[in-house]
């Protein structure tokens, strides 16, 4: 009964995902086609659609920033979470948790201010800032997720004669996966929004039209950039929701 | 056969299990029992080294396994626990096939074994193989837990209060099932419980532990009739000792020939009671045999609850006599034919 009740809204959200995904692709490819609309809305602007780079290029650059930083966040975060939940690393848990928390306390802008003098402008400082910023939810959820595995399930696993590696891969990680993915989801969504500030230090992204619009008082540019960032975030979130659901066991 | 030699566990300088030595022969049902904190669970978990032992030796069959890597040892020893601990992300079949998988059995062999075990526990293989643990009732999950422990045909089966968390009715069903499975598989079992009635019902040998020491290791009857010391005496509980003893006696030990009712001789046989049977020797009613009536003129109809079988514990037979307020109970065979009787006089006239 419960499974049935859950199924209906998922089917509705599939349509939402398809619709918003299509809208995202359409806007990315055909934003210039909306020029008459923006001209009508903002008659005082000479160039109501951002044309310096294509929105496809900006979106790809944005996705690359998020992908690279999230891959690093996830590998480092899950690795750290695993380490501190093993017997050997247990005493490092408070330290790792506070380090990850500090990473998120630092505003990404402040990280940029520190990293730019060291690593120069562009891609690298943005990746550093996003990686640090996205680390906390991954670390926290990895630790929490592994903590949700019932002790008697672990006891039973040991009792069957599985090695600690087999227990980790076959029992702990699958059971913790839903919570870990929830952490990755939060981290990625945050970074999709935060990646826009990379444009202030020369990393091209969907933040570029936003910054340009803010600097040149062109509200249309801001709307175009922000709409795509927002859509990208929502579509990604819906995708993660479906992924999480795959790792739900039991009632 | 499994033998423990001087098993000792020391935590922070304190011996929680002290020099426990005992031997459970092949096919025996050994039960470790004692008050909480007596070290029975610790002892059990030292056998498959979920708890590393401080001192002592463990001999499995004729092999000293004390130095064997724990993972290898555990694949040879079945382990079932109170909370069951089924893997929630795996189906019943996958759960049962864990150890065969670790031992790298061929798929066909482990599939066949899963079906065989489900059948052993009267779970329909077609229905249950692909269910997930959250779709099972407590009793079904516990059966799957024991099936998992038996999957790779282990030399010994360890059970840590496996029926502690189920309701009393399910527990009794599972206990009966465990007796049947034990009789069918002749597995060597080491079973931990704190429930004396459960121990008396299941065990062929009972080890009583107190404060980390083995106090007495004996057959249930000897434990009841010759307790080693005051602790055992108190632990068994004197209040219902008579009934406990009868729980380890079987109807066939008290059974005797049933006097048959015959219209012509009824008055002259001198029997206090007699059984009227039909052409197939199914008992129909008892003439006499009650204290509240008028001698042999009293009639009691036989019904499905008011009978005994040869394998029934005497305690249950006695309980039925008390409940139906009769002095005798018919003993029937599988076809429902009268093969004898047990009587109140029989129970009282014999040293239990």
Descriptive labels:
heterodimer; A: 251 residues; mainly alpha; MetI-like fold; 10 helices; 0% strand; disordered N terminus; B: 352 residues; alpha/beta; Rossmann fold; CBS-domain; 2 domains; ATP binding (chain B)
CATH C-level class of the largest domain in chain B: Alpha Beta
Strand pairing plus helix content of chain B: what structural class?
alpha/beta
Q: Which residues of chain A sit in consecutive blocks of at least 5 with pLDDT less than 50?
A: 1-7
Full CATH superfamily name of the largest domain in chain B:
P-loop containing nucleotide triphosphate hydrolases
Structural class of chain A: mainly alpha
At the fold tier of CATH, the topology name of chain A is MetI-like fold
- β-strand percent of chain B reads 25-35%
H and E order of chain A: HHHHHHHHHH
Number of strands of chain A: 0
Cα shape of chain B: globular
Family (chain A): Belongs to the binding-protein-dependent transport system permease family.
Domain ABC transmembrane type-1 (chain A): 59-240
Pfam families (chain A): BPD_transp_1 (PF00528)
Transmembrane segments (chain A): 63-84, 105-124, 175-199, 219-240
